[in-house]
Amino acid sequence: MEVLSQSKNNYAFIDSQNVNLAIREQGWILDFRRFRRYLEDKYKIAKAFLFIGFVPQNQDLYTSLQKSGYILVFKPTLSLPNGKVKGNVDAEMVLHTMIEYPYYDGALIVTGDGDFYCLVDYLIKNKKLLKLMIPNRGRYSSLFRKLMSHIVFMNELKGKLEHQKKEALPRGRNPSDSLRSRF
Questions:
Q1: Half-sphere exposure of residue 33, counting CA atoms within 13 Å on the CB side?
Q2: 160: which residues sit within 8 A by CB, 6+ positions away?
Q3: N- to C-terminal Cα separation, the chain
Q4: What residues pair up with 109 in beta bridges, in sequence order?
Q5: Rounded to whole angstroms, how far apart are CA atoms 128 and 124?
Q6: CATH topology of domain 10-180
Q7: What is the C-alpha to C-alpha distance for residues 32 and 160, in angstroms, rounded to an integer?
Q8: Left, alpha or beta for 27 (phi > 0: left; psi -120 to 50: alpha)?
């Protein structure tokens, strides 16, 4: 039996790097503020935990995500010799999903990474999995293929969740000028 999304006490556990990269591979950028609202409206997510590598220069991003309603769980990162930053959040995400286990009715796991198969399987067996949300239908772990009845894909959500670029105003134009000219 599947956990009902009507429960008001569902939590989301989001692998931010997996989501971000998988969505960008599809040619669009996720609007995390809209995504948080979507999770609340569609799945009644009371708490959304976002697992993310900590880079001090990204403080504005972290503040924005927190203002959007996410609870951030940071993983220390390493700077590799090639200049890339590495911060694998898998262990933290599994640990926090289990720490919070007594407090939620259903868990929405957001990732396409097969390293979370045992967690998803455990939640299914204990009737605590709300859904496994996979960012890219075309690229995810084959381990999840046997769980199709528990999976939703983010591909179809582009229209609802894509970050909209703000159009720059021509220099010297005030956005209220067009309103004033009408009166």
A1: 7
A2: 34, 38
A3: 60
A4: 13, 132
A5: 6
A6: Rossmann fold (3.40.50)
A7: 11
A8: left
The residues, ordered by sequence, that sit 6+ positions from 79 with a Cβ below 8 Å of its Cβ are 85
At 107 the three-state DSSP class reads strand
Taking 60 as the threshold, does the pLDDT of residue 183 lie above it? no
Chain segment 17-48, per-residue pLDDT in tens? 999 999 999 888 999 999 999 999 999 999 99
| Phi, psi torsion values for 56, nearest 5 degrees | -50, -35
Rounded to whole angstroms, what are the CA distances from 36 to 44, 49, 56, 76? 10, 10, 23, 24
Q: Token pair for residue 53?
A: 């590598």
Alpha helix segments (H runs only) across 26-144: 32-43, 59-67, 90-99, 117-125
Amino acid at the residue 10: N
Residue 133, phi then psi, degrees to nearest 5: -100, 115
For 79-112, how does the pLDDT look when each residue is reduced to its tens digit (9 = 90+)? 788 877 777 788 999 999 999 999 999 999 999 9
Q: Taking Cα atoms as reference points, which of 77, 76, 73, 78 lies closest to residue 98? A: 73
Structure tokens at 57: 């220069």
d(CA 42, CA 87): 30
Q: What does the pLDDT look like over 124-178, one tens digit per residue? A: 999 999 999 999 988 888 888 889 999 999 988 887 888 887 654 455 444 434 3
